[in-house]
Design a protein that fits this description.
Blueprint (H helix, E strand, L loop, with lengths): L11 H20 L3 H14 L3 E2 H7 L8 E6 L3 E6 L9 E7 L4 E12 L2 E9 L12 E8 L5 E6 L26 H4 L7 E4 L22 H14 L9 E7 L4 E3 L5 E4 L2 H16 L6 E7 L16 H13 L4 H9 L2 E4 L3 E2 L21 E4 L3 E2 L10 H13 L4 E3 L9 E2 L3 H5 L4 E6 L1 E2 L7 E4 H17 L3
Helix pairs in contact: 1-11, 6-11, 7-8
């Protein structure tokens, strides 16, 4: 099957819609560099569209009917959205599922130290990263600090033009002869990914006033200077880092890429590109035969574990609660609902990179600008840890996309023995539902800055809309 670049297929009206979608997507990326920030942005969007919070409806014991829209947030990091269809939920739903977490650096619980006249924050990398990619670039700190009295302090430093940024140092080329002999995995090691946050010592005069040239308490003076700033700006102390969730991410906004502005270059596109397109599809569909659902979860990059990952019971519990408010609940009906559902596991795929052509099977790889991507299976090597979708379901999805003239391509994650990857697909498949991976091709995947095609982003949204409206296998 020959895949073709799809830019030439669009009408003027479609090109305008494509650019509008890309602009909104880039704004979403700028406002959602962490899972918590994504959830805040999403809730604001869906409540304007008429979605109601599930827990509030449960307290009111309010009955739900066809057309009602509800959502449930779990621990401020995962969300499930439902729009009730004409048919009972026990007959199945059409589900879009993506993840909101992205590779990054997490601040440790006892992170601040001083060495060689610099104050540092000790980090632990999250997800699959090439560690050498994170040095000498501007970094921002996002997250929350929870104080002992329960107060939440939000941190977001490094994104505004007048904000300071942070960085990880690297050895100068003049002294790097030994370093350059190392394997790429060893050039920068995990414990060396500590970010520099200051170099100016706290100076106090004899009267206790800042600004004098006479230093007092010279030991760890730079560290003390940093904590003086944190106390003044956020009213937090060193112990407050114990109950903090702070994420270090690349500083800067999503940008259009190329003279033709055909691409998006930004942090966190894996997998916020599919999360946003799934969200937009949910907001676009209305009056569907089957209940439509969108689940956007945390922790996929580290195995979908924990209370906010796809392996938790959060989603199953939300389905049970919604069914209870429709009067359709029983343990058997919940099982029937999940087993009869159809799902697109909306996650990204690797894009062909001509600079590293030997890593790809050119016949079975996704290309930027050739439409959304369907991966019948993921996993690694012998399809290990993969959801391998049935041919019948693959045929059903093809028919839906062809009918709506959605441009799509099929792909694998590189050559067979070179590696691979997984998604949340296999977890939902445990319920017996039909699941297939479907998303967008990404270059530089898991790098601080990833590249995608505006055309593919647009086609993904179109494909998700078509799926929500028509899937019924």
């Amino acid at each position: 099957m020959e895949n073709k670049n799809i830019w030439r297929t669009y009408s003027t009206e479609q090109l305008e819609e494509l650019e509008s979608h890309a602009k909104e997507y880039m704004n979403f990326l700028d406002n959602g560099k962490t899972e918590r920030e994504c959830i805040d942005t999403i809730v604001n969007m869906i409540e304007k569209a008429g979605y109601q919070e599930l827990q509030s409806l449960i307290k009111q014991n309010k009955a739900l009917n066809e057309g009602d829209k509800v959502y449930s947030v779990w621990m401020n990091k995962s969300i499930a959205m439902f729009q009730l269809g004409k048919r009972p939920m026990s007959e199945g739903m059409n589900i879009l599922g993506a993840h909101l977490d992205s590779p990054r650096l997490d601040i440790k619980q006892n992170p601040v130290y001083e060495e060689g006249g610099f104050a540092y924050l000790d980090t632990h990398y999250y997800g699959g990263v090439k560690k050498y990619q994170w040095v000498t670039i501007p970094l921002a700190i996002h997250g929350v600090v929870i104080k002992k009295d329960g107060t939440t302090v939000e941190i977001n430093v490094g994104e505004n033009e007048d904000d300071p940024v942070f960085f990880i140092s690297d050895l100068l080329i003049h002294l790097a002869a030994e370093q350059l002999e190392k394997k790429a995995s060893k050039v920068i090691e995990g414990e060396a990914l500590d970010i520099i946050i200051g170099n100016k010592p706290l100076i106090i005069d004899k009267k206790g006033e800042k600004g004098s040239k006479e230093e007092k308490h010279a030991k760890d003076a730079v560290k003390k200077g940093i904590f003086a700033i944190l106390k003044e700006s956020y009213d937090i102390d060193e112990e407050d880092f114990i109950s903090a969730e702070l994420e270090v991410v690349p500083a800067g906004k999503a940008r259009e890429a190329g003279f033709d502005r055909s691409m998006v270059l930004a942090y966190g596109q894996d997998d916020r590109i599919c999360a946003f397109s799934s969200l937009k599809a949910m907001l676009e569909v209305d009056g569907t035969d089957r209940t439509t659902c969108c689940i956007l979860v945390d922790k996929e990059e580290i195995g979908s574990v924990g209370a906010t990952g796809m392996q938790s019971r959060f989603f199953e519990n939300a389905v049970a609660e919604v069914m209870n408010l429709t009067g359709d609940y029983s343990e058997l009906n919940v099982r029937r609902c999940l087993a009869s559902s159809c799902m697109l596991s909306s996650d990204v795929s690797s894009a062909f990179d001509p600079s590293f052509a030997s890593s790809f099977d050119k016949k079975n790889v996704a290309y930027l600008g050739n439409g959304m991507v369907i991966n019948k299976f993921t996993g690694s090597r012998g399809k290990v840890n993969s959801n391998d979708a049935n041919a019948e379901y693959m045929g059903h999805i093809r028919a839906i996309f062809d009918k709506e003239k959605v441009h799509f391509q099929t792909a694998e994650l590189g050559k067979v023995d070179l590696g691979g990857g997984g998604t949340i697909a296999y977890i939902l498949a445990l319920y017996g539902m039909n699941v297939i991976d479907s998303g967008v091709a990404v270059m530089n995947m898991h790098a601080p800055w990833e590249a995608t095609s505006k055309a593919d982003i647009y086609e993904a949204k179109r494909g998700y809309v078509a799926f929500l409206n028509a899937a019924s296998l």
